[in-house]
Amino acid sequence: MVGATEAVELNRLENQVDNGGGGDWEYLCLVRKFKVRRSDKVLKHGLSILNDSRKRSKLGGEEWTLYEQVAIAAMDCQRIDIAKDCVKVLQKQFPESVRVGRLEGMLVEAKGSYEDADNIYESLLEDNPLDQVIHKRRIAMSKAQGNISEAITRLNKYLEIFMADHDAWRELAEIYVSLQMYKQAAFCYEELILCQPSVPLYHLAYADVLYTIGGQENLQTAKKYYASTIDLTGGKNTRALYGICLSSSAIGQLTKGRKEKEGTELQSLAATALEKDYKKRSPNKLPLLTATLKNLKL
């Protein structure tokens, strides 16, 4: 994710390039550095360099990096003809390259020939089973075809090899949630919390899943993770505050009104914090909040 400072720098340079102020190569380097996909701009400004032999010669070895960047941008923009030309140049220069092999697979994939692309990727994985990029392409391809069960299988296989990939765990968790497979989603969030215990988003998502599963034990645990979300965000997470109130209400219904002192104090603090927040940020909706808390018997 691009930070605010990086975004300002990137937008400034993009505006400069778009208005003929120069800096095309610097802009393209920045796009790669920040790992953003501004494919239409990359295609336009990248081609202007590649089509100018004088500019291209100044790049030295970086010329091939630009061919790759433009090829991917062309695929994104469905300019298959341009992508094909770029890949041909790279094939000629690097005939045995795995990196170019990936591009060949992506080009076939962009044409919609998923089975042929999968065969190319599978062949590449036979030579290098630890190629993360190819594993991710196969997962993305399964999702693009709407084959979610295959995407899940491939994600699980990927995570057996690359267990520290937080983005993959989160993606798998979100797929499970979309399929209402909450126990499997909970396992994914547990892995994320173990790896990155200070990320409030994971605590909140885990609490939401446990609350959805229900049952007194899950609700008690959900309330703890809502509380940890509030702690990690300095008391500024409205959703987690609501989560404590909802969990407390659900526990009260299951226990027929029996409440622990600690639980009562926590829900009272959450309700007070919500009221304070609404008074400050949205006073016109305060009556709605009050009515909601009253219905929850808080």
UniProtKB/TrEMBL annotation:
Q: Check the record and name the Pfam families matching this protein.
A: TPR_EMC2
Q: InterPro entries, alphabetically? A: EMC2-like, TPR-like_helical_dom_sf, TPR_EMC2
Q: Which SUPFAM superfamilies match?
A: TPR-like (SSF48452)
What species was this sequence derived from? Papaver nudicaule (Iceland poppy)
Compartment(s) where it occurs, according to its Swiss-Prot or TrEMBL record: Endoplasmic reticulum membrane
- Tell me the ranges covered by the EMC2 TPR-like domain, including all copies: 100-209
Q: Which family does it belong to?
A: Belongs to the EMC2 family.
- Name by which UniProt lists this protein: ER membrane protein complex subunit 2
Main location (coarse class): endoplasmic reticulum
Q: Share what the entry says about its subunit structure, partners included.
A: Component of the ER membrane protein complex (EMC).
Recorded topology in the membrane: Peripheral membrane protein
UniProt keyword list: Endoplasmic reticulum, Membrane, Repeat, TPR repeat
Listed GO CC annotations: EMC complex
Described by its record, this protein's role is as follows:
Part of the endoplasmic reticulum membrane protein complex (EMC) that enables the energy-independent insertion into endoplasmic reticulum membranes of newly synthesized membrane proteins.
